[in-house]
Design a protein that fits this description.
This protein is an alpha+beta fold and 601 residues long. It is built from 14 helices and 25 strands.
Length: 601
């Protein structure tokens, strides 16, 4: 009874203190938006207050569209005002963390008051506009690098966020050509232009036991598409999405009847991957997608001419010139025999039959690779054999992996590693040519170091896909510095409650903590796939062969995805046992555009 009396007195005192300010807030409609609720519990009263506040925010936000968000008539361009109404609650969700709360009376007759400044919502508008322009810039950069999937993804995401902005129809942007463009129409046209510049050619068709395999060659502006995601019509539904790699991909159609026409549908919405950004995800869940009719391709199936020996030689020569500083293998007979057996075993799914061409560790990695997805080999691989010391690698065998739970498919170019005894001791997913060129272009570095860095990055990428916790644990130094940043919401500051409450909190983990977290991620996901972009590698000024690797990383798994910036400081003084001394990950670049690098450690 005494405690209840004290609480009642405190609430009465608080009400007296706030009564004047409450009336000022309610009357100052030019500055504040507010809501008030009642209920048997504080939580119920708070929800009612928030509901009223959301309603006020919605009215305010919709009023901002008057006169500025007019309908733009161009093909499939949408009505901004109607689209915006559907996504207005995403602003409410974003701003309510900053809404002040005052408990006016306690349970069982609880009353709660919530309020927020109108200027706070304007700040949210500005932040969303910045993100729109950032996505647009990412799309432009991806186009320059022939990354079609990435370009379409970022262009469409920018266009989606425009639909959720009250002034979306009037947002302008200076593109890479220096032109000031109206993004609402420019993005729509850019997406259609990308579709028009994509060409899909049927390279080969193979009759298998109970299905046909169609090998596709996908180009963008005449160059192999570094990335391209698509689905294909099976006769009953669309299979996929499939992530092509370096212009290579395949479609499998069950049945004994050969198709007359293959139907391909390019992916551009990337609904699942939008989960890497909570704001984007909320908008995409609330508004209808934009249909782009140019994303459909129809490829006529026809009798294909056989590839001549001269053409095969040209393909092999192209692979060799991609590694001009690496020694070629003179006698490839034994290595070629092993890779031919490997290819046959994968095609026939007779994995046990090739156990003798592997080391024990190599065979374990092979079985993990076959378990990664329902692996198929695309086309007839033309391998290039290269040597570094006693080790030989064969690049590459294009494989496509399918996952049962969501029909997701990836294409990876598999690199075969031989030891000094000519046995296969490792299999890795190859880097794309842009990343390889970046490493090989460092002419002042020793050839051996460049070769080791390529192997290291390919092993690192593959270890996550194959869930090789043992390998990851071994390459981290026991005292490695591991820093992971994540976006969090901080509590409103009573002195200045309207400051941006989003911040990046950096956590330092020990090696054991990091490995435990990774093991949990491995156990809870059917698949993990990592994409590297914008890699920058620099050499430390001391310590011998110590390098800093800065990479923009897209991480996708069965139930989680994110995009961020990875930094690794790796010691390759012992080429066979590289050691990571520093690993950092941050969701955004620093305000000056930088990310963690060698200079920070």
């Amino acid at each position: 009874m005494k405690n209840l009396l004290i609480l009642t007195c405190c609430l009465s005192l608080a009400l007296n203190i706030y009564s004047q300010s409450l009336e000022e807030i309610k009357c100052d409609t030019q500055t504040y938006l507010w809501g008030e609720g009642t209920g048997t519990t504080i939580n119920r009263a708070d929800q009612e207050a928030l509901s009223m506040l959301i309603s006020q925010i919605s009215v305010f936000v919709e009023s901002q569209t008057e006169g500025s968000a007019t309908e733009v008539q161009q093909g499939d361009i949408f009505n901004f005002k109607e689209s915006f109404k559907a996504s207005v609650s995403t602003y409410s969700n974003a701003t309510l963390d900053n809404a002040e709360q005052i408990v006016l009376s306690d349970e069982p007759n609880a009353r709660v008051f919530r309020y927020i400044k109108r200027a706070e919502i304007d700040r949210i508008f500005a932040q969303r506009e910045n993100k729109i322009k950032e996505f647009t810039r990412y799309g432009e950069e991806a186009c320059k690098e022939f990354k079609v999937a990435d370009a379409l993804r970022y262009y469409y995401w920018a266009l989606t966020l425009i639909r959720s902005h009250p002034k979306g129809s009037s947002i302008t942007y200076h593109n890479l050509k220096g032109e000031e463009v109206l993004l609402a129409t420019w993005l729509h046209q850019r997406i259609n232009d990308v579709f028009s510049d994509v060409q899909i050619i049927l390279d080969e068709q193979r009759k298998m036991d109970n299905y046909y395999q169609y090998l596709l060659n996908i180009t963008y502006k005449g160059q192999p598409a570094v990335s391209f995601d698509y689905s294909y019509w099976t006769g009953r539904n669309y299979a996929g999405p499939v992530s092509a790699h370096q212009g290579l991909a395949a479609a499998e159609i069950m049945g004994e009847t050969e198709l007359e026409q293959l139907e391909i549908k390019a992916e551009y919405i990337f609904q699942g991957e939008a989960a890497i950004d909570n704001e984007l995800r909320d908008v995409m869940q609330r508004i209808e997608p934009i249909p782009f009719r140019k994303n459909h391709y129809k490829i006529q199936v026809r009798e294909l001419p056989a590839v001549t020996p001269e053409e095969k030689h040209q393909n092999k020569t192209k692979a060799i010139t991609a590694f001009p500083s690496i020694e070629q293998v003179e006698d490839i007979s034994r290595f070629a025999e092993a890779t031919e057996k490997l290819i046959a075993a994968v095609r026939n799914k007779e994995y046990e039959s090739v156990k003798r061409i592997f080391t024990p560790e190599g065979y374990e990695i092979f079985t993990r690779l076959m378990a990664y997805g329902n692996a198929i080999i695309i086309g007839e691989p033309e391998l290039c054999y290269m040597q570094s010391g006693d080790n030989v690698v064969a690049r590459t065998i294009p494989m496509q992996f399918r996952f049962s739970n969501n029909n997701r498919q990836f294409v990876e170019e598999v690199v075969v590693h031989f030891n000094g005894e000519k046995l296969i001791d490792n299999l890795t997913f190859g880097l794309d040519q842009t990343a390889i060129d970046d490493v090989l272009g460092k002419g002042v570095w020793p050839v051996e170091a460049r070769w080791v860095l390529i192997n290291f990055l390919e092993n690192y990428k593959t270890a996550f896909a194959l869930k090789r916790l043992d390998y990851i644990e071994n390459i981290f130094a026991d005292d490695a510095l591991i820093i992971v940043g994540r976006v969090v919401k901080r509590a409103p500051d009573r002195e200045n409650p309207y400051l941006n409450n989003e911040l990046v909190r950096y956590n330092r983990y020990s090696k054991n903590q990091y490995i435990r977290n990774l093991q949990h991620a491995f156990n809870s996901n059917e698949f993990i796939n990592i994409r590297f972009e914008d890699n920058i590698i620099s050499k430390a000024g001391k310590g011998g062969e110590v390098y800093g690797i800065q990479i923009r990383q897209d991480y996708f798994s069965t139930n989680y995805g994110d995009t961020g910036y990875l930094f690794l400081m790796v010691d390759v003084n012992e080429p066979d046992t590289p050691v990571i001394h520093v690993r950092t990950w941050q969701p955004h670049k620093n305000p000056d555009g930088s990310i963690y690098g060698l200079g920070d450690f």
